[in-house]
Write a structure and sequence with these properties.
This protein has about 230 residues and is α+β, with helices and mostly antiparallel strands. It has nine helices and six strands. The chain has a single domain, classed as NADH Oxidase, CATH 3.40.109.
Length: about 230
């Protein structure tokens, strides 16, 4: 697996370029995203495929004062209690996946200048999830569907569409399971009905171009390792 440092603050002109250069951004400029760009990204993403065209998603885009209040409430919840998501987070992984996950964590902490043994710094870094890493816009994806494998596939297709369309516009994103960690806080802030489950969220905005944390390009296994032709 190889990783590299690349800049992704420019727009992507092809699907291939968006896919090859996209990675999670964890350091954003405070620059607001024009509403017409958000309308374009999320409107186009609605063309994503789903089981029998069921479209099991709803999208909540949070800016301005509401975003600031929600960030404060989420950080407070994270300081006071463990996550309480409405979906079951994975608890076990194959050994090769565990190695990839551990290696990624160490590399990200390294780029962020955090020592492995510095638990306080790691905890502070984790809390930045709930501050949306400084992004001007927070997005929450919810569903009233009974959650199952195929609904998960549909939501994954929808999320990938958002990530690539945002990349086309020169925006950075960070998809975050962590934003589904405290659904009661989100539902209260956005006045959502109880049956609407908060699945996950993402931070979206303009990447800081001079941030090493943003330029870290996550490694992937080789095609030879994961793809077979018959």
């Amino acid at each position: 697996m190889n990783s590299e440092m690349i800049s992704i603050h420019e727009t992507a002109t092809t699907v291939s370029e968006a896919l090859e250069t996209r990675h999670s951004i964890r350091d954003f400029l405070p620059k607001p995203i024009p509403e017409e760009i958000l309308q374009r990204v999320f409107g186009k993403a609605l063309r994503s495929p789903s089981w029998k065209n069921s479209q099991p998603w709803k999208v909540h885009i949070v800016n301005g004062t509401k975003r600031e209040e929600l960030a404060k409430d989420l950080v407070q919840a994270a300081r006071q209690s463990p996550p309480r998501p409405e979906t079951n987070w994975p608890e076990s992984y194959p050994s090769d996946a565990k190695k990839r996950m551990f290696d990624l964590g160490m590399k990200i902490y390294g780029v962020a200048g955090i020592e492995r043994k510095d638990k306080e710094a790691r905890d502070q870094f984790m809390l930045r999830n709930f501050e949306f890493f400084g992004a001007p816009t927070a997005v929450f994806i919810t569903s009233k569907f009974e959650l199952n494998y195929f609904v998960g596939i549909d939501l994954g297709c929808f999320l990938q569409s958002i990530l690539l369309l945002a990349r086309e516009e020169g925006l950075g994103t960070c998809p975050q399971a962590a934003l589904g960690a405290f659904p009661d806080v989100v539902k209260n802030a956005l006045q959502l009905p109880n049956e609407e489950k908060v699945i996950l969220g993402l931070s979206i905005g303009y990447p800081k171009p001079d941030s090493d944390l943003n330029r870290f390009h996550t490694p992937r296994e080789s095609a030879e390792e994961l793809i077979r032709f018959y």
